[in-house]
Structure formats: C-alpha cells, structure tokens
Specification:
By secondary structure, this protein is of the alpha+beta class. The chain is about 50% helix and about 10% strand. The chain folds into two domains: about 160 residues, 2-Layer Sandwich (Beta-Lactamase), CATH 3.30.450.80; about 55 residues, Winged helix-like DNA-binding domain superfamily/Winged helix DNA-binding domain (Arc Repressor Mutant, subunit A, Orthogonal Bundle). The protein has a five-stranded antiparallel beta sheet with strand order 2-1-5-4-3, with helices on both faces. Strand 4 and strand 5 form a beta hairpin. Helix 1 packs antiparallel against helix 2 and helix 7 packs across helix 10. About 35% of the residues are buried.
Length: about 240
C-alpha cells in the first residue's frame, strides 16, 4: 500500500471518528467516497427475505430520493441480487461481478432501473456480525474511478463507517488494547510501504506462512478487517510510523 493512500485513509477515518453525530459521520463518509466517483450510498441491515419493514434497519441513507421511492414502491428489496449476494458471502464485490446469466428477470430489472437513476456502477461491502443478521454498505454512481489497489481502502471506509454508526451512544468496554510486538510493528510498517506478504517474507527472512500468521495476530489485536484497516489503527495508536 502506498503512503499517500494510507495517509488519505487515515485522514478520512480520523474525521469519521471525531464526528459527533450520525449526520456528521455520513457527511465525512460521503466526502471520502466522492474521491472515487461514488456519489450515492446505503448503509443497512438485511433482515430475512420478505420482511416488509426492512427500512427500519437503515443506518445511513445516501440514495437519490427518487430511487429510494422507486425501490420501496416496487418491492425491489425482495429481488435485489446485491442483497442476496450479501446474505451468502462476506466478500466485497462490484456490481458488475454479479453473474448476469444467473439473475432472474426481476433481479435484472432492479439493476437496470438503478442504472436509470444514476447508479450504473457500484460496490457492496457485506458485513457479517456474530450473533446478528448480515448488513451491507453499498456505494454507487454513473461511473467508478477505483483501481484494484484502492478496493481495500473502500472496504475499510465502509466497515469503519458502519461500526461508527452502530456504536453511537454505546459505551466502551474499558479494556486496554494489546500492544503490537516489535516484529508485528516492523511487518506492518513494511505493509504500509506497499510490500506484499511474499516481499515481507523475503525481507525478514521468514516464510510467507509466518508473515500471514503475524498479520492475523495484528488484525486480532487491532480489531481490524484487513491490512489497510490495521495500518490506520496502528497509526492512530502511534505504534507505527510511515
């Protein structure tokens, strides 16, 4: 990961963390997404199929108003292929990656109509929380400007925003975070420099499995979803420098 990307991600998450209301969090999230050409978003839980009151699960609504009204009036939630995919897989995906040949007529209609409302391309970040139902952060626009190396950044932004909204008014548990070891800090700093797991293994003279084991420990200690998120959290804790 390049330093510039890490710095931008750190700045965006810092602004989200210092926001004092849901509206302020969503405004910072909207600004961060705009850098990638993404202008519309929805952050919501995904209740069981055929739930007629799914809107109660919405944490943040950044969809165009006309599209939201159309989506609700046509019961698109019941047939949305993004919803179905998010229920069954925790992996982020681009809308264009949905298997077009396997979509039902109603599912294709949902995506076609989204395009008519200025949401031709998009990304979904499913969020599966233990002992809770699935959720999703989805963002879209007429066109995306996202390089493959930026996908983990968008995933991190989406999950961090979801957690920030979910935690509003929730007191912390007061536990002291576990510090990273010297080797974990060294490894994470190499990751921040854009080095892959194989690169780091070569630099440190260890196996790839050892690097991946350290990365799992780092994510666990920092409660991070991926390396990008771990880097930002370690920077905020001043455990690494870039």
């Amino acid at each position: 990961m390049e330093n510039e990307i890490v710095v931008d991600l750190f700045a965006a998450i810092s602004k989200i963390d210092t926001a004092l209301s849901a509206d302020a969090i969503l405004q910072e999230f909207r600004s961060a997404l705009a850098r990638y050409g993404l202008r519309s978003f929805l952050i919501t839980g995904l209740p069981v199929p055929h739930d007629t009151d799914w809107q109660r699960e919405i944490l943040g609504d950044g969809w165009p108003l006309d599209w939201y009204r159309r989506y609700v009036s046509e019961d698109h939630f019941l047939h949305d292929p993004c919803v179905a995919q998010c229920r069954h897989s925790p992996e982020p995906f681009l809308w264009r990656e949905l298997p077009a040949a396997k979509l039902s007529t109603r599912a294709k209609l949902v995506m076609d109509e989204a395009a008519e409302f200025g949401m031709r391309e998009g990304i979904c970040v499913p969020i599966h929380v233990p002992l809770s139902g699935p959720s999703v952060v989805t963002a879209a626009s007429d066109g995306m400007e996202v390089a493959p190396r930026e996908m983990p950044v968008i995933e991190t932004l989406c999950v961090h925003t979801f957690r920030s909204l979910s935690a509003l008014g929730t007191p912390g548990d007061g536990d002291e975070p576990m510090p990273l070891t010297a080797r974990e800090r060294e490894l994470l700093e190499w990751s921040a420099q854009g080095k892959s797991a194989d690169d780091i293994a070569c630099i440190l003279g260890v196996t790839r499995n050892t690097v991946e084991s350290h990365q799992r420990n780092i994510r666990g200690k920092l409660d991070a979803i991926n390396v990008s998120h771990a880097i930002v959290k370690a920077l905020r804790r001043q455990e690494i420098q870039i």
